[in-house]
Structures are given as C-alpha cells and as structure tokens.
Amino acid sequence: MGKTDMKISTQGGLMALLMGGTALATTGLGGVALAQEGATVRDVITVTATRREETVSDVPYNISAVGGEAIEAGKILDEAELLRSIPGVTVVDRGARNSGTMNAARIRGLAVDGNALGDYAVSSVASVSTYVNDTPIFANFALRDLERVEVLRGPQGTLYGSGALGGTIRYITRDPELGEFGGSVTGSLSHVNGSEDFGIAADAVLNLPLGERAALRLVGSFGDYPGITDYVNLYELDANGVPVAPNGVLDPAASYRIEEDADTFDTWMGRATLLLEPTDNASIRIVHARQSDDVGGRRQQTVGFDGFGNAYDEYENGSIQLEPSSRDINMTSLEAEVDLGFATLTSSTSHYDHSGDSISENTGFYAQAGWLGFYYNYPRPMAQAVRSYADEAVIQEVRLVSDDGGNFDYVVGAFYRSQQREMTQQSYLVGFKNWWDTLLPGAAGAVSGDQDWDYRQTEHFTETALFGELTWHASGDVDITFGGRYFDNESENDTYMALPLWAGLFPDVNANFETSEDDILFKLNGAWRFSEEDMLYATISEGYRRGGANAVPLSGYYAEDPAWQMYGSDSVINYEIGIKGDRGNFIYDVSLFYVDWSDPQFNTSTTNWGFFAVQNGDAARTYGLEASLEGFVGDAWHYALGYAYIDAQLSADFHAPDRPAPALPIALDGAMLPGTPEHQLNWSLDYTRDLGGWVSFTRLDGYYQSETRNAVSTSPTFNVPLDGFSIWNLTTTLSRDNLDLSLWVKNITNEEGVTGVFTEAYMGTAPGEGYFGNGNKEMIALPRTLGATLRYSF
After folding, report:
1. Which helix (H) or strand (E) holds 215?
2. Which residue, 553, 653, 668, is CA-closest to 611?
3. pTM beyond 0.90
4. Segments making up each domain of the chain, as ranges
5. 160: closest CA among 332, 341, 411, 382?
6. CATH says 13-375+386-445+459-659+676-793 is which class?
C-alpha cells in the first residue's frame, strides 16, 4: 500500500481495507482500518509525483491518487472505469479492440482529434502522457497488483516531458516485500447483458523472499470474456476468403450469415519484479511485464437500417466482415536508487516493444466516398483494411533529488529516449480480381490482385533533455518552486505508398524527411499553508508535444503541397489557482484553471492523396473548475464527490496547411473541442459493517457527463452531438480471515454511454452500389455486467 501513516496488521490486506471502507476516486485515500479501540484511522496514500514522497494533500497542485486496494475492492475492470472516477478526466471508451493503439484519456479538454479516431496508430503523441513506474509508455496493461495510480492534472512538461499537455497518469506497480512469503489467488465469473455466455478471469500473486535483502514478486492474470456484439450482415466466404457467389461471379447475389457475440476478448498478463537492497542505502528494482490480447470484433453497435430495410437491434453490427485485433507488449525496466546522504540518486533504464494489428471494415467508407460506384463497381464489394503498428523504445533517465532540510530543495536530471514507430495499412477489395478476370478474361493482366493500397510509415525519434526544479522555502508556511526543461529532439520519417491493384498504372512512392527542434519549458509554483490543515497554491506551467515529419512526396504523380511536409510542436501555458486541505475526517481540493493552447496538433490526411499526416492549427483554449471532497461519517460510512466544469474551444479558425484563409476552414473559432463535456460528476458511498466474525463492505458509485461533440470539424459527416449519460456500479463483499467473496454489478441501468461514432454519412449502407451492410457504429460503454469474485490470501 505504499508508505502510510500507520501499519495494518489484519490477516488479509483486502479485509483490512474493507473493515474501514474504501476510498476510491478523487482524493487519494486508500481506505481506513479499525484501530483496536474502534476509532477510524485513515490510511493515507503517499505519492511520488514531484519525485519526492508526499501525501496528496501536501502536493502543491491538483493531483488525484487511487490506491491499488481500492481498485481491487471496487472490482474495477478497465482503464475507462478507473478514469471515470477522477474529476476532469474523460475517456473515449472503445472497448478492448485496439485498446493499445492510442491513449483515449483526455484531461482539461486538450484534444482536437475526433472521438472515432483509434483504429490505426497516429504520428503525434497523445495530449496526456502515461507512465508505468518510471517508464514513459502507453500500454494499457491490465490493472492488476498495483500500488496506486496517480493522475496529475495540467501540463507536466518540466518533469515528464513531451505529451504532458493535459496531464500525466502514472501506474505504480507493487514492490516485493522483503522477508515475507505470501500471495493471493482470485477467480471471477461474470455475465454481460447481450451475451450468450459467461466470462471467467483468474489472477495470482506470489511474493517470495530471497534471503534478507532480496525478494521476488510474481503476478499472473488471465481473462476469457465472451462478446456481446452480433455481426448480422457477414458475407459467407469461400476457402479463399472471398464472398460466396451463389449464382455465379457476375451475378450480384450474395450469401449472408450471422455471428453472435463476435467481440470476444482473451487476455493474459504476467509480471515479475525483483527487488534487491544490497545495502541500507541502495536498492535495485527489475521489472519485466508482458501482455497479449486477442479480440474478435468491435464492441460497437450500428444504428438505422441495412440495405434490405431491416432495422438493427441493440448490440448488432452491420459490417459485412469480422474485425478482429490483437496486440503484444513487452516491457523491461531497471531502476536503481542510492542515498548519498545529501541527496538520492536514481537511475531508470527501460526498453519496451509494443505491436498490434487489426482488420477493419472499409466498405461503407468506399461507398459513401463514391468509389464503389465509380472505380470499383463489382458485385459483393468487400473493402478490407489490414493495419498494424509497432512502437519500440530505449529510455534512460538519471535524476538527483535533494534530501529535505534547509532553505532549498532541488530535483535535477537528464533524460534520453530513442524510439522507432511504424504504422502500416494494406487495403484489399476482396474478390475484385476474380470478378475482373471472369468479366474480361482478355484483360486479366490489367489487374494485379485484390490489394488496392499499400502504405507504410516509419519514424525514428530521438529526445535528449535536461530538467530541474528548485524549491525555496521562503518561510515555514510559504514555498516557491522554479522549474525548467531543455529538450533537443530529432525526427526522421520514411513513407512508402503504392496503388498495386491497377498493374503498372500508378508508380510507387518513397518519401523521406528529417526535422529537429529544441526549446526550454518553464514552471512557477507557489504554495501558502495558511493554516495547519489548509493550503493555497498557484501555478504557471508550460507543456509541449513534440513535432515531427509527415514525409510526403513533393513531385511526381503523388505530389502534395510542401506545407504538409512537417508539423511543429504544440504547447500550452497553464494558469491555475487552488485550495486544498486535510481536516481529519475529510479532505478537499478546489482549483480554477485557464489553459492557452498554441499550434494544436490534429491527426488527419493530406488533401490530394490521403497520406496520413499531422497538421497544426492556430490556437485553442480551455478553462474551468475541478473540485473533490472525500471523507467519513462515523466509523461505517465513507463518501467521495467530484465535479469538473470545462469550457474547451478553438480560439481561431482551423485551416488545412495548403488551404489558408480565405479558403473555407476545417473548423471554426469557438467550436467545442471533442470528447470533453462541460459538466462531469463522480461520486461514491461505502458502508462497512462488522457481522461478528465476518465483515461486510458495500459500495455504490456513479459517473455523469453532459453532452459532448464527436469531432471539431465543420462537416456534419463527423461533427455530431453525443448525448450525456450516467453509469452506476454496485459492489458488496463479505470477508473473513483470508477469504473474500464479492458480488458486483457494473452499469446497473444498462446505459449506452456513447463516447464516439462513425456516422451514417461516413460509413453507411449503399444498396445501389451493392453494399447491403452498414458501417456506421456507436462506441458504447460496457453494458450491465453481473459478476462474482472469490479471493483467497495467504
């Protein structure tokens, strides 16, 4: 549970947590325990967001922390559920499919990309950075055996570098316990509304002492979950994967089938942590983690009608082909600390390799673009996009953190990252070659095969940075912190594109471009402890996101405007003032913020030939309020409340780089930034009761967000409103000795919770072009899910 202000000595860690209630959500309490005389004592989470050990109430800016025990007690299933518990954080819930492609979290509204983006990897990094321990990586690991999750709101460029525009999310894994043998075994059974089967999950944790100064912690997790989405317009395929032609290749008739619960999800995760403490002043932690996911299809439903006039029911998808995905992630890190007496020296070395692939239904897009009727007018059209991504990096950070004491404290460090990213797409018109050869056997050589697009983008990125923060303890009650980061980035991008279907008609293209940039970020923070319990804080801080090269051809058949050749970094300046306090039986935090966003990055495609590219806009801004309150009523009741108001808008017209004003803009000044509601609420209420040998724990929690927009574009093809929604969850646990039995319900009211759409105008049906399926779809929250979990600790 991290370093706390007390020790818990009950027989089971979860039982100790349940005996006092769970503090899950906004402010960072990890729960309470009952002292021997029956008084309620809080278990306070210690965080290291500032690179020092502090309680949440002592950190002089807006931060939330969720304890690992709270995640386990609340039976939190995924990142979307976790982040909904934190004020000011929203998430586009895509389900398990492509969950590792890009970070779906948004803090303080800093996002311009549409909510539907996420089927393929993009060049720009996310506006929220994520860390696993000290490794900057977005991996979406299973939430198993975590010490805590820290959410730092607002730009964190000084200490956390590129991508920390809106904030940083840190996933801290549990360390081995020296001299202790123990662990736990957990099994779960669940059923989700709309499914014909049950899901099973199993987790195991084993802590092994290796002498007095070393220990090993092993974590394993497995999940086998049935789907809920019925693909009701699937083509019957022959042995070659081509749609069956019941009346011959030239006849338009097709044969269809249904596959129920297609979006199955199989996942396993393993993690090993070796902790060595060779001396009293030194420690070494080696962590290796691996996860593999296989997903059978989208948890996304189609609305409206198919090409035959049949209405789609709940949890039905109109794609004419299955859309599976898979991914693998390996991460290894070595973190060493040495106490030098005057300061602590820390070295973090890590390597990760993250890759994935998926198949997407593109027939609806081809139909709405007019390509089926004009270019590819053939029966039983089946446009398939086979996509992959790979992300590999080596990272080294060294920092020196002064010991507390004196008038000044400091953090200084150096950072290096070498990263290579690759994104590919091979698109196919399945069955086109067979149809062409049958129709025009004398011209068979004009068509090389079914592949109509071949695309590959490879980027090598190198970052070197020096950073530091100096805190002046001006008095016993006033601290002033100055921070800065110098960075030097280099990026090289190689792009390959071909249109191989029409043999020899279109030339292949290779393009290469290199960019570099360097700059200095700043931070100024002040904190005034105007009473023993309360703090007033104010911050001016800067965050940035690295730029890069798009590498588009500037001459020849595929020429694009040179304005597309590269994109610059974007940056924010955040102004924030807040008050927080710890009043014993409750803690609170209220902050006001204003963020000025310059040159916001937007993932899009080029005007002429659709190369994947990033462009810069002019400006945007967000402002709002974040508030949280958490506390206790007596010894049995615990509550948590969170609220955020965010007004996020473009503050200038958004133009394509090759179509500046007075051309029509892509988006207008004042447009609401996508995916961020103006109003967001989260709440929880826990009740704990001693039943004489047994302890019962019951938790009710909920989340609400107001209406959002799907995209920032002026086009109604993308920019449509998304209704607000609320989601309620309930968990109850009985604990005795080392045994815990939990019954839980997620999304009690079975709310759809739509956070993104592919619209009818973008992906819809087109029976006049032979496409009788429908590619429009809504990204829905996990429907009502009932579950039971049994855990045994030893």
Report:
1. strand 214-225
2. 553
3. yes
4. 13-375+386-445+459-659+676-793
5. 411
6. mainly beta
